[in-house]
Amino acid sequence: MSLTAHIPSHRKPRRSAAKSALRAGVAGGVLSTIAVAGAAAPANAAEPVTETTLQMPTLSATQVAAATEQAAADIQQQAQQDAAAQDAAKAAKKAKAEAVHKAEAKKKAEAAAKAKAAAEAKAKAAAAERASRSATRTTLKAVSVSSSQATGSAAAIVSFVTSHLGDAYVMGGTGSNSWDCSGLVQAAYKSIGVDLPRVSQGQSTAGTQVSLGNLQPGDILYWGSAGSAYHVAIYVGGGQFIGAQNPSSGVVEHPLSYDQPTGAVRVL
Description:
Shape: rod-shaped
Mean pLDDT: 81
Radius of gyration: 67 Å
Low-confidence stretches: 1-5, 17-27, 30-37, 40-46, 139-148
Order of helices and strands: HHHEEHHEEEEEE
Structural class: alpha+beta
CATH architecture of the domain at 146-266: Alpha-Beta Complex
Strand order of the largest sheet: 3-8-4-5-6-7
C-alpha cells in the first residue's frame, strides 16, 4: 500500500458538466435581457413622461393655533348655549309649578271667601228674622185688646195667642214655643178650660157656625170646608187674626184680606 493512499486530497472537486451548462444558460439569458433593454431605451427616451403632483396646503403654526382656538371657542359657546337652554327649561318648569300652586291657592281662597260670605249672609238673615219677630211680638204684646173688642174668656184667648207671636211653626207642635195651627188654637182654648179636638177638621165644627161679617174676638176661623178644614186661626178683632201660619213665618198676625177664611165657628 502506498504511504499517501489515506491522505485526503486538497483539490476542489470538479463541477459536473450539467451544472456548468445550467449556469451558462442562466447567465446568457440575463445578458440577452440586458441587451434588449439597452436597445429599447433610446426609443422610449424620446417619449416625454408627464407626472401629476398634488400639493397639500401648508399651515403655519399661527394658523394651526388660531384654528384650534376657534374650535375651542365654538365648543365653549355650544356648551354655554346648552347650559342656558337647560336653565331656561328648569326656570319655565318652576314658573309653571308656581303658577299652578298660586291658581289652586287662589281658587281655595275664593271658595273659602264665598262660603264665609254665604254663612255671614245666612246668619244676618236669621238675626234679622229673629229681630223682626221679636219686634212684632213686643209691639203686639204692648197693644192691649180694648174691652169693646174682647172681654172675659175671649180676651184671655186673644191674650194667649198674642203672647206667642213670633214662635216657630212646627208640624205637630203643641208648645210651649213651637206650634202648628190647630195646636195653637187648642192650647188657647185650653188656657180657659175648654177642650177642643186636636186637628183643624174637628175644630172647624166644634162650635156654632157664624158668618164672616159677624165675627167676634176668640172665634175660630177655618180654611176649607167645615169638617174637612186644612187650616185654623183665632180672630182677635179689628179685622185681624193670629195663627201658626207656616214654617217660614211662624206665629203671625194678618188682616183677613191677607188670606180670606172660608168660615168661622163660635165656641164661647
